[in-house]
Amino acid sequence: MAFNQPGEKYPPVTTAMPERPLDNASPPRDHGGNLSAAMAEFGGTRGGWMDLSTGINPHPYPLPEFTAGDWGALPDADALADLEQAARAFWNIPGEAAVLAAPGASALITALPALAAPRWVQITKPTYNEHAAAFEARGWKIRVDGPAEARVVVHPNNPDGRLWSEEHLSSPLTIVDESFCDVCPGQSLIRAAERPGVIVLKSFGKFWGLAGMRLGFAIGDPKLIANLATWQGPWAVSGPALRTGALALQDRPWAKATRTRLKQDAARLDELVLAKGASLAGGTDLFRLYTVEDAAAWQRRLARAHIWSRIFPYSRTYLRLGLPPSDGWDRLEAAL
Fold first, then answer.
1. N or C: which end of the chain has fewer CB within 10 A?
2. Where are the beta strands (DSSP E) in 16-117?
3. Contact 215, 245 (CB under 8 A)
4. SS3 track for 262-308
């Protein structure tokens, strides 16, 4: 498989993407966090809802005091270098791998399929749906098993928490999405980032609880990272994100304490929900996946108490819950 070289154009996709009028665009893809839809059906105000439909840490990293330069100046090259060096140290990134900071993992997911000519990509389901959507938009064909020129593994998987191993990383282009792996760093496949054709994604929004900061990282094959950097252009990461990210990635005591608290809260959530008749289907320390008799009915019951949960169009029994904030436990128990 021939990868594009830095500066080359994306592969043509016109034959795989027929034109259609804007007023006939595809409906929004299924995601958590869509509180507007919840409020439209069940009322209330955004501030009055407790959103458990995402896997975002409810106790985010404390924001630093920003300077006028953070907001008013173009992002500084030295600050970007500091951030990427902090990322190398925090994730124990191999020296042979390149690092690219980006405005969120989602921006990287959109660009990754352009790294090679569209053929077959293996994406085992169920998993995070943006990967398949991004590859299909670039003209790739999706398969759930069998040989393929590209492969995506979400590690740990969303929504069931499945963990993968290095033996699964054998396609010419391999993407390892570790957006939720900071709760279990010992399971990381970051060593594979030194292999040709491998890119590991890291998200800042989940573990650190700052999804609105829009910060993510691509780590891996220097040639592929160079392409992503060229397409991204300069100043992609904001000044406030550069400052916050560098501080957070160097704050090992906060990360250690946070892992302990998340583990305790995940166990507490299991105890609470299983006592109401659910069974555990998987998850991570940032979200839990339960099997219930009627997931839509559970979601409606919680929504009447203005608590939003996550259900899935491919399963009538899967219910996913994130962790409530410290003052939300009694409210959740009462709603259940």
1. N
2. 50-51, 98-102
3. yes
4. HHHHHHHHHHHHHCCCCEEEEECCCEEEEECCCHHHHHHHHHHCCEE
SS3 of residue 315 by DSSP: strand
Tell which CATH classification among 3.40.50.2020, 3.30.479.10, 3.40.640.10, 3.10.20.580 matches the domain 68-250.
Answer: 3.40.640.10
Residue 115: count other Cβ atoms within 10 Å of its Cβ: 24
Sequence ranges of the domains in the chain: 30-59+253-335, 68-250
Q: What is the mean pLDDT of residues 176-183?
A: 98
Classify domain 30-59+253-335 at the CATH topology level.
Aspartate Aminotransferase, domain 1 (3.90.1150)
Q: What is the pLDDT of residue 2?
A: 46
Report the distance separating Cα 159 and Cα 238, nearest Å.
30
Question: pLDDT tens digits for 14-45?
Answer: 333 333 333 444 445 677 778 888 999 999 99
Write the CB contacts of 6 (distance below 8 Å, at least 6 apart in sequence).
Answer: 223, 226, 227, 229, 230
Token output for 261: 């608290």
